[in-house]
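Hey,
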Amino acid sequence: MSHANAKLAPRGRLALARCVVDDGWPIRRAAERFQVSAGTAARWVSRYRLLGEAGMIDRSSRPHSSPRRTPTQVERRIIKVRVIRRWGPARIGFLLGLHPSTVHRVLARFGLARLRWLDRATGRQVRRYEHAAPGELVHVDIKKLGRIPDGGGHRVTSRAVGQRNRAASAGTHRDRHGKPRLGYAYLHNAVDDHSRLAYTEILNNDDKDTAAAFWTRANAWFISCGITVRRVLTDNGGCYRSHVFADALGESITHKWTRPYRPQTNGKVERFNRTLLEEWAYAQTYPSDTARAATLPDWLHTYNHHRGHTALDGKPPASRVTNLSGQNN
């Protein structure tokens, strides 16, 4: 944007117009003096005669009429479908016989929130937040992960070989239907709200003693990173409601719980769970559960120190923690 004293700014246009209207200069002479075309000079002179100084202000480039704009009735139908069904432009366009780009323009024109900003259950816009400093809030959660039989499952081998490997790895363990049961590994995760720095362990269960011991180690790790944890947010699982977990937190850390059936409140660790599964657990085929577990420390280091995070302008979580060791490794 030009400054107020530029030749074609409102003050310069006013001076040009006054030279012609008030001082009687020919339009061509005024145009040459202000180094603009005769047509441009004539336009500002005409506006000055009609509107005075107010005519020197830029007008909106929006046309007075838009005969090809989507009819109001169609716009209302688009908004109604979006509000009631919470569909995206493609599905709305298919239902109403419109191109998705047309639907998108209507939704954008009326300022309707993106679907990823909405709570799909209620249709309300999700209030997003971020604490100002590391340690002000740490999200904690547990994710179950199916174990891999030694020798690989059916995704690595054939189905028949995978079933044999599963039976051999399960030993005498069977489910209620008599099929071999490998069970689950439990990913205990802690994610700092401000930096998204994450700490993860693969454990054998999700009981209160295991959860409490995990937090003790996680808290020690955050302290080693220079982060003093003040609040912890968990869901309402029994292990987090226990006195054992409360004792592990101690008096210096405030425990907060999510609202029932509202995992969005703990969304940062829920999103980390998804990333963990997509980019580590299921990113490649592993010959055994032990082989997969062995790759977790390297992946976690990459996530914390080198992987760009979309919520952090493409920077890794470590970039938000002062003097954190390992950033250049």
